[in-house]
Amino acid sequence: MATVTNWIEHLSSDEVAGSIYPGAGSSETALVILCAVIWIGWHVLTAKSESDELSRLARKKYGANDHKSNITDW
Q1: What pLDDT, on the 0 to 100 scale, is given for residue 1?
Q2: Exposed/middle/buried for 74, CB within 10 Å: 0-12, 13-18, 19+?
Q3: Is the dihedral of CA 44, 50, 51, 56 positive or negative?
Q4: Nearest to 10 by CA among 19, 35, 25
Q5: How is 4-35 classified by DSSP, letter by letter?
Q6: Across 36-41, average pLDDT
Q7: Which residues contact 12 (CB under 8 A, 6 or more apart)?
Q8: pTM for the full model?
Q9: How far apart are CA 57 and CA 20, in angstroms?
Q10: Is the CB of residue 25 less than 8 Å from the CB of residue 19?
């Protein structure tokens, strides 16, 4: 394996062409976009799930002291 003594010459050579690690360029952009879509989707699904759960509990109209009666689905 060759050692690099001058990084400027090494990075400007034709065999390296500016990228110093594999996958530089469009594959990173695609992964960032994919992760952003997954992240936003996760938040949308979680918000919908929590909203459904809270509306289900609100329909049951528990009172302030109902927890003392051992309601199992509190």
Answers
A1: 53
A2: exposed
A3: positive
A4: 19
A5: PS-HHHHHHSTTTTT--STTTTHHHHHHHHHH
A6: 98
A7: 18
A8: 0.52
A9: 55
A10: yes
